[in-house]
Queue: 2 jobs
Job 1
Amino acid sequence: MIWDALAFKQRKRPSPLDAETSSVAGRISAARAHKQQGILDAAEKLIRRYGHAKTSIEDISRVIGTSRADIYRFFPTKEALDQRVFARHAHFILERARDAARCETDGSAPLLAAIISLVEQTASMIECEPHIQQLFATAFAKDWEAAHIYISQVLALIEAIISDGMKTGHFAVSDPAVAAQRVLTSVIVFIHPTLVTEAALKFPSLIPGPLTQIEPVLAYLSASGRK
């Protein structure tokens, strides 16, 4: 923000040439963004069908009718491209969880709605999108930055909902960040792509009832709010 303000102060008076240059730059930027989205669309389609490990840059270039070199102009490595596809799905999951929380207003309902959304979307991905689930598992196994951002944004969502609950008087925890950590810890096994599959194999009785893990934490938060 400071850099933007400084740049604005130092900007010279615009001229018709500046406007034309800006217009051309805008069209180039839009065309580049469109091309990048086309690459991501093709990559996602192939990953859904064959898996990220079996999807190559050559496969993607063949689908969209371009060269491998052209794809590398936008994504320096295949892993960078995989991370962007992962980020797309992670963003979608988070947006649906946010929407679920917005639809509720009373008590613990927004927090419970967000958590249930995350749990159900993870379960649905495992059942219906096994190649996407494998992409998520790889993201966490390889410690991708995008995976860290995803979890940090899940935590931020939970913290924001708890903070809103404190404003309405439903929650009275001393530190919403600490409370959010506790909530996430209680449900991480159900939203982490590797932990949830391991739990399904080793502790199958946990999977049908994730609320057994969530409800005690919600009860603790609500009880705190009534003190």
Note: Confidence is low (pLDDT under 50) at residues 1-22.
Job 2
Amino acid sequence: MVIGAEGHHNVGIQLAREMNHNFLGCAENALGIREWLESKGHQYIVTPEKEGPDCGTFIPYLHVLISTPFYPTYVTTERIKKAKNLQLLLTGGIGSDHVDLKVATATGLTVVEITGSNTVSVAD
């Protein structure tokens, strides 16, 4: 895994592969932010693997992890301990029950819910 250049970050997200391709939250569309992030020099890592042996291979390299409420990345104590570079965990929607908030807080990890970001998809 290539670590971003100084001043740039690795941003990761796990999105469902078997989803309507018109939905921004499918792995192929990657929330529609790939081009913007990469234009800023950041590396955007998208994977549909949220379970199994390969799902956490990129965690130690991430600075930011984005999660969605309908396909959450479970941020457990074990994953937080492996995430030596992780500074920010974003949840695109309401709810952080997939995050070990006690451990995240104790390690200085910032957890943010972007409430309202999924209102259009919920309404659909």
Note: The mean pLDDT is 73.
